[in-house]
Amino acid sequence: MRDYEAATAFLGEWGRFQRLVFFLLSASTIPNGFNGMSAVFLAGTPEHRCVVPSGANLSAEWLNASIPLELRGGQAVPSRCRRYRLAALTNLSALGLRPGSDVELESLEQEPCRDGWEYSRDVYRSTIVTEWNLVCEDDWKVPLTTSLFFVGVLIGSFISGQLSDRFGRKSILFLTMAVQTAFSFMQIFSISWEMFTVLFLIVGMGQISNYVVAFILGTEILGKSVRIIFSTLGICIFFAIGYMLLPLFAYFIRDWRMLLLALTIPGLFCIPLWWIIPESPRWLISQGRYKEAEVIIRKAAKINGVPAPEVLFDTAEMQDWKPQQQQKAILLDLFRTRNIATITIMSLLLWFFTSVGYFGLSLSTPNWHGNAYINCFLSAVIEVPAYVIAWLLLRCLPRRYSLAGIFFLGGGVVLFIQLVPADFNVLSVGLVMLGKFGITAAFSMLYVYNVELYPTLVRNMAVGATSTASRLGSIIAPYFVYLDAYDKYLPYILMGSLTVLIGILTLFLPESYGNSLPESFEQMLKVKCFRNRQQTTGIRNAKESPKVLVTPL
Q: Distance between alpha carbon 23 and the CA centroid of its chain, in Å?
């Protein structure tokens, strides 16, 4: 059978049909930007201290001195979790003694916050932390909340990858969209932290899963010259737009329930897309459903205003190809040979550590110097130039060296943060932003690189498996942020070191630059088993045929 791209070349690269698919699939990822980082504000922890009951009969002096001081960030500040024993303070106040002059405060017995906490309203009016007092002894629940969200994403990524390979890209895309939107709405009515967290886990199952399926659907429908710009600019930039809108919504809506409602509503606008976005013809062909694929291709030709040939797929050739294409892939096919297994394991490690760096830096924005809303917005904005640079690198340079260089940049500057003097807060934030820039660019490039290595039959499964590794990294990322409570530089040392490590690992991967997407396991093996001479030939041929990567945009 003819190559799929050759059979559909008459459609052109950037007709009305391709533009429609490009922008609608990209726009469908905007809600993912909302939900992916919403925990930054939904689970924000404001400044807090122990409540001293109004009926404690303390003088004004003893009321002001009721909270002991502790050293935090090199400064003496009121304790968040302790107060002086209230009964002792009441007795001392009744005797007319004065704190500091008559009584040494350091000698007084302390107790935990038995009457609850009072929270600063300067940054947040209400979060799940203030709603259910997730501080002090229960502060471990905050990173666990975010981690369980990513556990849901992990489950969803794993399941959706196999389901979409078996039941189709389009069906699973809209199913995961529905899960994300419906359960986000149910979260608004949570009556306990446990209920919120369980629903958050289910939201996670639909969140990145539909992002991955939309990515696969777009790369399989669009041609070579548009595929890379879709993967690095289209779908990623629309995700970043959603991410940028998150702090904007959070700034004006500071109650967590109303914020969650505002972030849920945009998901409803994706419903009409069901009647516009088509199924992947590549997937239909891989399942032997040639007539359905032909209907979609002929409809695309009509939309583009170009004539379609009378015969798209020869019946005899289709029958010869059918047994191969109807075989069902399983996860073990990603480890079919020693070479494929090695590449798969290396890819899993790359995605895991990249995810730790990306989500670790993204979730730590409230810990940066300055305004939490501005920091989050800047963290989102920096992704746009990162995606542009990633696209340019994918167009012009081999995958391995581009990725390795970006990893070295991102990890190196994050490691350098510990050397910045304490007074240079703006420089520290700038280095974090540069690190986020590098890791974000690498993250978007990994999607393209991964797709180029696997054939149609298991491509979505491969992306789902590596995305699963990515989710494992995102699950532990909140605990990297949590390490800030012990040493403010420790999270950056760990994330920077891991990022440099995977930069080295990238240099051992095969080069896929300049090759068509593989359609079969045999083609996959050829791509993966290229020797240095073949890699060099592939790169030289790509340079001689720049149309492979040049976009008409």
A: 20
Could you tell me what percentage of the chain is helix, strand and coil, using 3-state DSSP and rounding each to the nearest 5?
Answer: 70, 5, 25
Q: What is the pLDDT of residues 246-297, one digit of tens each?
A: 999 999 999 999 999 999 998 888 888 888 888 888 888 877 788 888 888 8
Residues 125 and 127: their CA atoms lie apart, in Å, by 7
Q: What is the pLDDT of residues 23-79, one digit of tens each?
A: 999 888 888 888 878 888 998 888 888 888 877 778 888 888 888 888 776 677 888
Whether the CB-CB separation of 517 and 452 falls below 8 Å is answered with yes
In sequence order, which residues have a C-beta less than 8 Å from that of residue 323 and are 6 or more positions away?
none
3-class secondary structure, 82: strand
Q: What is the largest CA-CA distance in the chain?
A: 102
At position 275, the amino acid (one-letter code) is W
Q: How far apart are CA 212 and CA 163, in angstroms?
A: 12
User: Rounded to 5 degrees, what angle do the CA atoms 320, 325, 330 make?
Assistant: 150
Closest CA to 502 of 468, 465, 469: 469
Amino acid symbol at 284: L
Cα gap 41→249, rounded to integer Å:
10
Torsion of Cα atoms, 404 then 405 then 411 then 417, to 10°: 170
Let me know the angle formed at the C-alpha of 487 by 483 and 493, rounded to the nearest 5 degrees: 80
Cβ–Cβ < 8 Å for 158, 287: no
Helix (H) or strand (E) holding 75: strand 75-78
What is d(CA 145, CA 128) in angstroms, rounded to the nearest whole number? 10
Per the CB < 8 A criterion, the answer to whether 410 and 362 are in contact is no
Tokens coding 355: 């995810």
Distance separating alpha carbons of residues 338 and 330, to the nearest angstrom? 17
Listed as own residue / partner, the contacts of 55-62 with beta carbons closer than 8 Å and 24 or more positions apart are 56/86, 56/89, 56/90, 57/90, 57/93, 57/94, 58/89, 58/90, 58/93, 59/93, 61/98, 61/99, 62/89, 62/92, 62/93, 62/99
pLDDT: is 333 or 194 the higher one?
194
Q: Which of 230, 260, 236 is nearest to 20 (CA)?
A: 230
Rounded CA-CA distance 167/163 in Å is 6
Q: How do residues 509-541 score in pLDDT, each as one tens digit?
A: 777 666 666 666 666 544 344 444 344 444 444
Tokens 């904005």, residue?
381
Report the Cα 246 to chain-centroid distance in Å.
Answer: 14
Closest CA to 517 of 468, 457, 445, 465: 457
Supply the pTM of this predicted model: 0.78
Yes or no: say if 468 and 350 are a contact pair by the CB < 8 Å rule: no
Q: Which helix (H) or strand (E) holds 201?
A: helix 193-221
What's 548's DSSP letter? G
- As a whole-number percent, the residues of the chain with pLDDT over 70 amount to 87
CA distance 302 to 315: 23
> What SS3 class is residue 532?
helix
Burial class for 501, CB neighbours closer than 10 Å (0-12, 13-18, 19+): middle
Q: Which two tokens stand for residue 239?
A: 């995700």
Query: Which amino acid does the sequence have at 283?
Result: W
